[in-house]
Amino acid sequence: MKLNLKKIARGGIAAGVAIFAISFVFDYIVNMALPYDMLALGGMRAIDDPLMLLFFLQPWVLGFAMATAFEKFKGAFRSKGWKRGKAFAIYVWLLVGLPSAFIVFTSRTYPIGFTVSSLLGSLFYLVGAGIVLEKTMV
Length: 138
Fold this sequence. Notes:
The protein is mainly alpha-helical. The chain has five helices and no strands. Helix content is 73%, strand content 0%. Helix 1 (5-33) packs across helix 3. It is globular, with a radius of gyration of 16 Å.
């Protein structure tokens, strides 16, 4: 199967915007209830380090990776429409979001707000991105 690069580009950009927006809103809500300063956590680079610019591209890196995988595997899902996007996103969360949150929770002494944001925030923004991919790539 040949990958449609135009669809991947469109879907990756749109999914990145969805990830950024949902993550921003969810993190804001979690931070109101369980405050933490992500940039003060151990192991984080200083905000003025030039490499930190790449950190803020993460939503689009993830969006393009999801768009590429969605283009390749969307036919494997029986459901159609937004349900297919949601199902795809849950698989991505099970493969990426859940293990990542587990590793951070078990190996770091980060505040509980960070763990909640990592675990649930990734589920919400991945589902949002999956639905966006379904709408922009099919």
